[in-house]
Amino acid sequence: MNKYKRAFFLLCKLVIVAGAFYFLYKKVFSNQQLPVQEFLNEISILFSKGIWTIILVLLFTDANWLLEIVKWKKLANIEKKTSFFEAYEQCFASFTASIITPNRIGEYGAKALFYEKEKRKNIVLLNLIGNLSQLLITVAFGVVGLVFLMKYYSFHYPEISILKTVLIVSVFVIAFLFRKKIKLLKIRDYFKSISKKIYIEIIGLSFLRYVFFSHQFIFLLYLFGVDTDYFTTLNLLFSMYLIASVIPSISVFDWVIKGSIAVWLFSFVGVNEITILTITTIMWLLNFAIPAIIGSIFVLNFKLEKSK
Fold it and tell me: E strand or H helix at 299, and its extent?
């Protein structure tokens, strides 16, 4: 039985990695909006800026992931002392394992598998705290961006489905009425047991991540010769990240959603569509594709944590 279990576990890891690489390949070579040759022509502009420019663009990505690793390390330490390398491994491996799941929900289970069975429920909750803190920052700045858009630009608002609204409200009402049965009270108590200092640090790290990946986009706009007002650009990005975050999707298609939203938003200030698609593709390659490839190494080397 142990041999069968090991073989099945190995098969699961291979399927995850193969699936990740397949989706990455399809995204790069089957993009109808931006053909590979046209993308290579556009990216040659970036390489013409010199090696130090390329290094600076890469440093934005390094800072983005470094902050995410430090954030997870602080959270994971609540349950078990976790080294920087362990947090690094868990972040990248869970990222790879989650890219074919809706809204990266697979990340919760993937990170939990690195810990003993007794700790996994709490690890899921800690991961939720990390993701909610990032969402909080996205929503806070996104609201500012949308207010700016509504004030200075005119566009059509999406129609609100009454049926969908009723269903969403019903789910929350049912969850409230049966909160004891779904153990919401225990979850609340666990959240309360975590010090306020940790929450402040996690929100601070989430804010810094938001600053870095937003300004990586702005820096790429500058490198491609896009001359737009800094304040306007920031608000367009705030709106883009908020809109993209509320659209349910499989994580690997996040690039398509953000690319389409970015093209729409930056059309208000007359930015070329190809330029925006090139920049969103570069952002996707640096912050998504490369980390997924790194994570695949950790997925293949992963060994299930046994209970004590």
Answer: helix 290-301
